[in-house]
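Sequence in, structure out. Go.
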Amino acid sequence: MDKPLDFKLLTYIGYNLKHKHVFSYLEAQKVLDEVFGEKYELTTLRKEFSILKKKELITFATHYRKPYPILTSQGKMAIKTVLPFKKYGTWDKKWRVVIFDIPEKDRAMRVKLTEKLESLGFGQIKNSTYISPHLLLSPISRYATNLGIRKYLSLMTVDNLQDEEKIVKESWKLTNINRRYEHFLVSAMKKQVEEYWPLYAKKLEHQFADIYRIDPQLPEEFLPTEYLGTDAYKKFKEISNSY
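Output:
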């Protein structure tokens, strides 16, 4: 997933300018083109810098009376790569099932619930039925309670699913996720300009994070042959420790 200009500029400011203490819009234009493959107009960059300053994501310091941008604490947080917690331990061979029948008047709450289920890696087997092998019913119950729709949900734990392998294959697009992991690993192996490595590294970190967020972390017996999730995670850690 391509990142917006504000992310690219914050990354450039945070890592490429960290030790330089000098800045020019022409240099920023050149680096963004080199690293992200897109050349922005100088007027666009100037406008974006003004927006970042207004949002208090950057401020300006001076070096020999010449101003250069630096990240504020908010700016640093904006580009920090944060992975969701997905260490579920050994599977207990049980499935968690969420079934709901939410009235149309609460449609907005229904959308929020489905977004929450998907963010936690639940797979959809019917319009209003989601499953997960992980111990995630409690957070769903709390979330539904906060939304005021808990009474419309049925939460249960079952020992097995009929046509288990078929349901898993249809509920999660693991082949697509694995293809994205492969693309990430290929990108990570490409030789890059050493001077700009921290920017490439940050770009790769976020590329991995976008995939990891949608990976349901299913038990190994349900993963496709040669699933690359573990290899991709190791490469992510290697990249994160490289600058």
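Check: The first strand starts at residue 58 and ends at 63. The chain has a mean pLDDT of 91.
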